[in-house]
Amino acid sequence: MTNAYELADQAADELRVRSGVDAYDIAIVLGSGWKEGAAALGQPFAEVATGTLRGFVSPTVLGHAGQIFSLRVGDATVALVSGRVHLYEGNNAHQVAHPVRTLIAAGARTVVLTNACGGIDPTKGPGSVVVIKDHINLTATSPMEGDVPPAPFGSRFVDLTDLYSRRLRAAALAAAPELSEGVYVGFRGPHYETPAEIAMARAMGGTLVGMSTVLEAIAARHMGAEVLGLSLVSNLAAGVADAPLSHQEVLEAGQAAASSLGGLLARLLPVL
Q1: Phi (first) and psi of residue 151, to 5 degrees
Q2: Among residues 223, 230, 68, 237, which one has the least CA distance to residue 149?
Q3: pLDDT by residue (tens digit) across 169-186?
Q4: C-alpha of 161 from chain center
Q5: Among this protein's residues, is 184 annotated catalytic?
Q6: CA–CA dist 98, 103 (Å, integer)
């Protein structure tokens, strides 16, 4: 049976053929609302449907279309991954991590993981972008489960001390000093969290809450890439505000912030 790393190598080879790119420098996974903002980075010179690449599963969430866009930003060749998949769609941790593993196999040494999330800290309200300093994984799974990673990859007991790169965080905060840092708490979903769960996350030191990112970050770090996480606060989490939560609210927050998100990415990429 093909292991996760061989599958990523095969998909990377297919991506090279379809995109015409021998090696990427940066991979950006576009969370809810971020695709519209990424349009500010420029016109892609190639677009590949993820359904044509080995090992990719089709996203089922509104606002997530399965595509990889290739474009040049300054001196860097960038892959924009549109169409994140999640555990709650019935996927396993390896399927969730497969797009990131594929782009790293295709050369990317920097991975930017974006998402839309709930805000636990009321001072970081809707529309705020927060740099992920660390995360708490409450998904009860890991992309390191299963077979021992083959050579040349290191142990499955990967050190996550510097999971969200200090260097990249410092560069992002220097380029965009209006940003702040926070701790992302990853739940499995797809239901929104209860007020009691949010109170638990706050007591654990969480600032942000969502249903993505943590598994991709672990897989990327294990493969030697530097990781930067960016969260758009689309709503205040359950119990922090009285308003009911909905996915439509997440999409609308992303659309409202699209121009500022695009400008932010354009400022950050040259320093990564």
Answers
A1: -65, 145
A2: 223
A3: 999 999 999 999 999 999
A4: 18
A5: no
A6: 9
Does residue 135 carry a catalytic annotation? Answer: no
Instruction: Please work out, in degrees rounded to the nearest 5, the angle formed at the alpha carbon of residue 108 by the alpha carbons of 5 and 105.
Output: 20
What residue ranges do the domains of the chain occupy?
4-271
112 DSSP β-pair partners: 28, 228
Active-site residue flag, 116: yes
The CA–CA distances, whole Å, from 90 to 35, 60, 61, 86 equal 23, 10, 12, 8
181 carries an active-site annotation: no
Q: Which CATH number applies to 4-271?
A: 3.40.50.1580
Total-model pTM: 0.94
Which residue among 5, 24, 32, 217 is the active-site one? 32
Report the C-alpha dihedral over residues 253, 256, 260, 264, rounded to 10 degrees.
30
What SS3 class is residue 67? strand
pLDDT in tens, 204-255: 999 999 999 999 999 999 999 999 999 999 888 776 766 655 556 656 655 6
